[in-house]
Amino acid sequence: MLDPISLTAITAVLGAVGLGTANEAGKWVWESAGGFVRRIVGREVPAPAGAGEIDEVARLVYEQVRRDPRSAASWSAFASRVNTGAPEAAAGLGQPRLPASIRFFTDRKEALKSLDREASRPADGRPRLALVHGPDGMGTSTLAVHWGSKQARLFPDGQLHAELGGTTSAPRDPGAVLRLMLRQLGVREEEMPPGGRQLGEFYRRCVADRRLLVVLDHAHSGAQVRPLLTSAPGVFTIMVARHPFPGLDAVRVPVGPLTDKDAVRLLTDIAGKPAVAAARAALPSVLERCGGSPYALRAAVPRLSVPAYPTSREVPDVHGSDPVRAAAEDAYRLLDPPAARLYRLMALRDWPAFDAEAAAWTTGIEAGDAARALEALADSMLLERDADAHDTGRYHYRPAAREHAEAAAAREDGIAACSAALARTLRGYAALAAAAAHQALPESWRVPGPAAGPGPAPDPAVRRRIPVYEDRGAALEALLAESGNLVQAVRCAEESGDPRTAVGVCRSLWPLQLKAGHHETLLPALRAGARLADAHFPGSADAGALHAQLAHSLTELRLWDEAETESLAAARAEETAGHARGHASAVEFLGLLRLRQWRYEEAYACFEQAGSILRTLGAQDEGVADLPRARALLERHRGRALRGLGRREEARTKLESALRYFRAGGDTYNAARTLTDLAWTWLDAEDTDAALPLIDEAITTLGGHRADYHLSHLRDMRERCVNP
């Protein structure tokens, strides 16, 4: 067993604590670690932000504990409460699997053999890595999934599939992709570290001893992929991309057009011999127009019987040499006018995954008619169904098909009609975001009310379609489902010269930030919102709110220098606007950042300053109704800062004061958090008898809150008190 006061063990403890700060329990342990380090070293030590800094702090602790038995005993007690291993997969999820493969698959023998060879290559420290590349519609993704389905026995721990969005205007952040893969492994969001670098390390720990296939679909660049790679001997990673990436040591597996012989075989497998025989006269034109693309061939099957099938030479201005656009043009010619209009207008932006409601806003038709048109477009292969589309009802374009539809919109609808359609879509997403945010977090002064949504008032038809959600959780889930579209809406509003809508949508993201995280996904929108607010609404409450929201996400991502800059900008804007509630909140954000940085004296000073600002609120000021709760939260934060300073009795006084308010007001969630803070102050002093009743009360108080991770943490604390 590793000596708990060895340099290796201390480094492991600090590393594990740093990886766990995405959840409330992890923040408690992180703040505890800062307090212990401060007391052991005898001075304030800045919180480490990376592996090198962790090594430096570990060495400081090691040099002290090896000289001082009391410090060694104190550190050992703390270290015993930290789990330094990789989390187990959640029970009951089963093995992650790839999406369903296709029924008919033709040729590609050499490509399959290349994948076989790389998958079976002896482990030598190099990542098992293959890059399957080829033009859109050539079946690169299908090849990866088909091979993985055939070779599932090689990967008893499962197969991960991640969409990287490299063919869209907004490729996914590597951190967001890592979270997706960790969720497939059964890791809960609360167990994942907050920042991108920490996520990569955490992911590699989780897969180190597993036999997995990882398919990274539609990769954008080597820079996007590198954080997702591992040299674990049992992991085989297949990247799918349009082109090879220089600088990546991967086996290249090119995928080109099918030969005419294989193309006919594929058509025969899908349509049957009689249909292909009946279309014998048109077959040369079909093969010419499809250009060996499996996608185009599949799309051509319903049109085999169409007389005088067009050749590539007949419509060169529409598709050039691109068989996917050619297939799109052929399918488009057969659409009825409402479906054709929907196909054109939804392509005006690269929405990640849209549904019938968004299509109805855009086109002005009823949602039921839009749903039927979307199904028809998917059946014609002009749209792709998202995974489980029959449950979610969401669709997206294949890139070449969207280019075709966008060009058709410009040609057939004109600039004015396209602009009006895009404005309707923006108003729809803005209204949905405002309504869902308000229903998800109705008590928050930060969330704009649905009636005062951003920008022009939504069309009456849009307003009728904004749902009333069953509960807060359902409203939050709606925001989460639309998060990619909302980020795209902010970009669209910025490019359209509509800063008010962009800022309003960003303000509606606050419940997602606070309750669901996903900071990597939201960060581009928040940066744009803060930039627009400064340019168009300087010194306003909107500018303050956007800088504060950006500061919050940057803090959670451990981008502390940027978070400090944004917190200070938020405070300046709120003060200029005369918005005392927002000013106090911005200063409070800075204090919370200081807690994360182990700068406890500065944190306490920030909380004191925020309290002084709150005392200036008048009876008519925004947020005054929330004033008692805001003061109680500041009192709790003061207690946390005092605990970090080792002033435990003063910390308990502040925490008990906050607890009295939360108990009296029936705020059971914050009461449980404060009880946990109090329990930690006693555990810091190794007084388990005093901590135990507080832990038990917190467990009881959290009943019905769905705070599974917090409860798990409390039960673990209790076990360590009962069986130290």
Summarize the structure.
This protein is mainly α and 724 residues long.
Strand content: under 5%
Alpha-carbon distance between the termini? Answer: 17 Å
The assigned structural class equals: mainly alpha
CATH class of one domain: Alpha Beta
Oligomer: single chain
Protein described:
61% of the residues lie in helices and 4% in strands. With 724 residues, it is mainly alpha-helical. Among the domains are: 73 residues, no CATH class; 146 residues, Rossmann fold, CATH 3.40.50.300; 74 residues; 76 residues, Orthogonal Bundle (Arc Repressor Mutant, subunit A); 124 residues, no CATH class. It is globular, with a radius of gyration of 29 Å. The two termini are 17 Å apart.
Which short descriptors sum up this protein?
single chain; 724 residues; mainly alpha; Rossmann fold; five-stranded parallel sheet; two-stranded antiparallel sheet; 36 helices; 7 strands; 61% helix; globular
Would you spell out the secondary-structure blueprint of this structure?
Blueprint lengths: L6 H13 L4 H18 L9 H15 L3 H11 L29 H11 L8 E6 L6 H11 L8 E5 L10 H11 L11 H12 L4 E6 L4 H4 L9 E7 L9 E4 L5 H12 L1 H6 L4 H8 L3 H7 L15 H4 L3 H11 L3 H9 L10 H8 L3 H13 L4 E2 L3 H4 L2 E2 L2 H14 L1 H27 L19 H6 L6 H10 L1 H13 L3 H9 L2 H7 L2 H18 L4 H16 L3 H18 L2 H17 L3 H15 L12 H18 L3 H17 L3 H17 L3 H14 L6 H15 L2
Parallel strand pairs: 1-4, 1-5, 2-3, 3-4
Antiparallel strand pairs: 6-7
Helix pairs in contact: 1-2, 1-3, 2-4, 2-34, 7-8, 12-13, 13-15, 15-20, 16-18, 16-20, 17-18, 17-21, 21-23, 21-24, 21-25, 24-25, 24-27, 25-27, 25-28, 27-28, 28-29, 28-30, 29-30, 30-31, 30-32, 31-32, 32-33, 32-34, 33-34, 34-35, 35-36
